[in-house]
């Protein structure tokens, strides 16, 4: 039993350190649009379709991401992840992304133009 508790303390301490390192690092994460291209597969189903509306949790307009400002996209994703911005599906999606994923995806979408509707990369 003692050994069991000890292990948990060590894990808690380690994840505390990892959390600190991650937040200290967050400011200097640099997005890579090329890497982002490989990370948007799960976004395309909703965000890649012009005028698409989701049916969940109610009929809802899905915003176009291509051509939006990278800082805006990154802030939006962090806000969903933290729960500052509420939308169930986006919260689930954003929670699965690391800071680096968010930076890459933001760089990728920012490099597109809003009118590149048939862009296969979108
Ligand atoms: C199930 C459909 C769905 C999927 C999958 C999805 N999104 Fe969304 N997303 C939405 C909807 C609907 C909204 C609008 C929600 C709101 O108003 O808060 C949204 C909002 C956003 C916003 C805020 C846009 C704005 O103009 O404020 C960003 C950024 C975003 N999504 C990025 C992504 C990324 C990146 C992925 C993939 C990693 C993704 N989404 C996957 C449906 C989806």
TrEMBL record:
GO terms for molecular function: electron transfer activity; heme binding; metal ion binding. PROSITE patterns: CYTC. Residues 31-113 form the Cytochrome c domain. Keywords: Electron transport, Heme, Iron, Metal-binding, Signal, Transport. This is Cytochrome c domain-containing protein. It holds the Pfam family Cytochrom_C. InterPro entries: Cyt_c-like_dom (IPR009056), Cyt_c-like_dom_sf (IPR036909), Cytochrome_c_Oxidase_Subunit (IPR050597). SUPFAM superfamilies: Cytochrome c. Gene3D superfamilies: Cytochrome c-like domain. The keyword Oxidoreductase does not apply. It comes from Paraburkholderia solisilvae. The keyword Transmembrane helix does not apply. Residues 1-26 form the signal peptide.
């Amino acid at each position: 039993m003692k050994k069991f508790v000890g292990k948990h303390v060590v894990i808690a301490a380690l994840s505390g350190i990892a959390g600190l390192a991650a937040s200290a690092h967050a400011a200097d994460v640099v997005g890579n649009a090329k890497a982002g291209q490989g990370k948007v597969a799960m976004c395309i189903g909703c965000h890649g379709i012009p005028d698409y509306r989701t049916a969940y949790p109610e009929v809802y307009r899905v915003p176009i991401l291509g051509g939006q400002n990278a800082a805006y996209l990154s802030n939006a994703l962090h806000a969903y992840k933290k729960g500052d911005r509420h939308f169930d599906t986006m919260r689930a999606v954003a929670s699965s992304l690391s800071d680096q994923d968010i930076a890459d995806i933001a760089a990728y979408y920012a490099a597109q133009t809003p009118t590149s509707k048939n862009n296969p990369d979108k």
